[in-house]
Structures are given as structure tokens and as C-alpha cells.
Amino acid sequence: MTIKYFKIEKLIRDKIPALLESKGIAVHAKAMEDQEFISKLKDKLLEEAKEVLEASDSDELCEELADVMEVVQALSKAGDLTIEQIDQRRLKKREIKGGFENKIYNSSIQIKENNPSINYYLNKPQQYPEIHPPTYQSDCLFCQIARQEKEVTFFANFAHCYVIKDQFPVSTGHILIIPHEHTENWFTAKEEVRSDIMKALHLVKERLDIEYSPPGYNIGANCGEVAGQSIMHLHLHLIPRYQGDMENPKGGVRGVIPSKQKY
Fold this sequence. Notes:
Layout: H1 16-21, H2 34-53, H3 58-78, H4 83-97, H5 118-122, H6 141-146, E1 156-157, E2 161-165, E3 175-179, H7 191-212, E4 216-220, E5 236-241
Antiparallel strand pairs: 1-2, 2-3, 3-5, 4-5
Helix pairs in contact: 2-3
């Protein structure tokens, strides 16, 4: 009978050879020296991390994260570290940098050429490739905010849009979602911009729920001067609504023409 050979070339758990041999599979393996072992553990960590990406449900995710933790345990021990030391370092970094509770995804940064920090990014072109900036309009307020030429605190920031609190809020927590790139209104925006605004809308709504617990919301974008648009750069309003903030709220956004609100 023909015997087939398969290349494996990876670190395996201690009991795997015996498990394979019990199935009639011959294992060709060796014990490694310390430095090679540490190198292969790092490769194994990447392998397990890729399998985390492929997890399709919480049970699979739990399974793959357990594998990641096993490799982390082994790698820390091989590096003469304890899990307690690593966790102390994690907590220290968390104090300075925070955690991941706000689900913030950084798609790009902008930095002036005379800023010393720019060298960190220039020296890592594979990790941080330089990209073309979005299209701006110099006299547009929202473009100036996007370029950080105006000192406004971002409530959140996303790949194609940023979020700020409305300077003239209709209610507590009233926010604006604004694309970085200059575009006049919802209908002129690129598909990826509209898609990112919708993602931002859901994530920001979750934050407002936690901070203010409003029982309702109005969502809207004015498109054109006759529709009340005063800054000709797309901005989406997310307006929390509260019990008693209006005597009879029936009609909602129909209130843009007050006489038509009630029906």
C-alpha cells in the first residue's frame, strides 16, 4: 500500500503525537531548543489569531480564544514572565491608553510635516502607507473641523465621518454626523460615505442610550436651502427625544412644516 507524506512544519501540543499515533499516523517530530521554541510560539500565536478571525459563532470564538490563551501562557513562561506581570502591564497601559469599550476604529490620521511624531509613521511604510487626503473646501466650516483647523472636540471619529455635539442642540445629546470629505448633501455623497454614516449612527446611538437613556430619537438631514440646509456640507442630525419635551410630538419630522405636522 502506498504511503503518503504531508508537510506540517508547525508547533503542536504535547499530546498530539500520541493522539495521531493512536489513529495509525506516524509523527516525525523533535524537541526544540529554547530560542527556536520561542520563535515557533510566536508563529503559533499568529496561526491561532487567524483562526479567531474565522470563528463564526460564540462557541467557535470561545474555542479559538482558548487556544490563543494557551499559546500566550506558554510564550510568557518561555520568556520568563508570569501572567500576573503581563496583566499588571496591561492595566498600566489601559490607564494611559484606555480599553476597547467604545469600539473605536482608526482608519487614518493627519499630521503636519513639522510634527516630530511623523517620523514614527514615515519609518513604517508597510504598516502605515501614506494615502491621498479627502477633498476639502477651504471656506467650509465642517471641512475646517475635519482638518482640525477649528478646535472642536470629536464625540467620535470613523473612517469617512466624524461626530460632534450640535452647538445649538434641540435636546440634550443632540449630535451631528459629518463626512470628512466635502460633499453637499446625502444624495451627492459616495456610497462608502453613506455606509459609514449609517454604521456611525448605530454606534453613536448606543453611546447616547448609555449616557442619556432617551426613549426616542429623530434622525434627519437637510438637503438644499429650501429644506433648511445652512451649511452646504452633508451633516446628519441624531436628536434624542424625551418624555414631555413637546406637548404633542405626533407628526415628528413632519414638523419641518409646522402646519402639516398634525394629521
